[in-house]
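User: Hi! I have a protein structure encoded as tokens and I'd like to know what sequence might fold into it. I'm fairly new to this, so please keep things simple.
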């Protein structure tokens, strides 16, 4: 496992360092804030097992420093997002459950290098991200009588991408980004303890997967201080089957607790939506 993580770390650094020429010299610090709402449709699927989908509403924000230090690193960006909504669960095995409360949180830090051209800039970047998601189905019952339970997932990853921005006429500009998310590690907690007081939760390590993102942004200058942008986006995760994990389960036929082994199936998550961003 250590060798696999070490190879990923070397690859991440090489992609970042190889994406630009080293430069030096004093630079002026520029700081920008951005905040705005987003809405997106999310589909989570375990092929042949289950699917969960619904509309999510969120708020995202970021602070971005350009030309904040001498050398090749021109961009420092910290961004966060929180979203919530209700999703419907469907399964050929355990039935359907509607209106499951789902919440989502993500925070990312990014370093990049600005490559300027006549009317804009291209910025290769790399960073580190953390993603958390919770499904609160505890206490709910499916159409076949199966009991629901809460689920929590945690991802650690490195975004590697290219952002671009080009000036148009009369205060308009266009930009966007294309990104590959290098998956480091994940943990999935299935709260089986909600099904019986003698049960324990199942915790599974997830070691293989990847993510993809793309967006396109159209920006309008409102005045010397504020800009407003509309940004359609697409996000995707593909995670392989997890490692095995042990948990305790009460067996009513035996009248005692037995130890069982379980895993998190291979799964994918797709999001597409739009956000409105205010820059200042």
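Assistant: Happy to help. Inverse folding works backwards from shape to sequence: for each of the 280 positions I chose a residue that suits the local structure. Here it is:
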């Amino acid at each position: 496992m250590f060798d696999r993580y070490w190879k990923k770390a070397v690859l991440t650094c090489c992609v970042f360092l190889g994406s630009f020429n080293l430069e030096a010299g004093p630079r002026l610090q520029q700081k920008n804030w951005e905040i705005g709402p987003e809405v997106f449709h999310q589909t989570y699927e375990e092929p042949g097992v289950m699917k969960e989908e619904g509309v999510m509403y969120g708020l995202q924000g970021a602070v971005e420093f350009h030309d904040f230090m001498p050398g090749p690193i021109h961009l420092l960006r910290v961004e966060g997002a929180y979203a919530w909504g209700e999703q419907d669960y469907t399964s050929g095995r355990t039935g359907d459950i509607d209106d499951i409360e789902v919440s989502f949180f993500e925070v990312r830090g990014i370093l990049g290098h600005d490559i300027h051209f006549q009317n804009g800039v291209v910025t290769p970047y790399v960073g580190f991200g953390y993603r958390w998601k919770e499904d609160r189905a505890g206490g709910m019952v499916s159409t076949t009588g199966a009991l629901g339970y809460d689920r929590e997932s945690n991802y650690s990853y490195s975004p590697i991408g290219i952002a671009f921005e080009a000036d148009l006429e009369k205060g308009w500009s266009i930009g966007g980004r294309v990104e590959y998310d290098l998956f480091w590690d994940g943990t999935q907690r299935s709260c089986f303890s909600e099904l019986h007081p003698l049960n324990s939760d199942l915790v599974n390590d997830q070691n293989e997967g990847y993510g993809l993102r793309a967006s396109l942004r159209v920006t309008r200058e409102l005045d010397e201080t504020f800009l407003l942008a509309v940004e359609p986006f697409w996000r995707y995760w593909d995670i392989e089957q997890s490692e095995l994990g042990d948990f305790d389960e009460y067996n009513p036929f035996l009248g005692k607790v037995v130890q069982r082994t379980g895993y998190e199936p291979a799964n994918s998550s797709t999001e597409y939506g739009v956000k409105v961003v205010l820059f200042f």
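A useful reference point when you look it over: The CA atoms of residues 61 and 93 lie 40 Å apart. Feel free to ask if any position seems puzzling.
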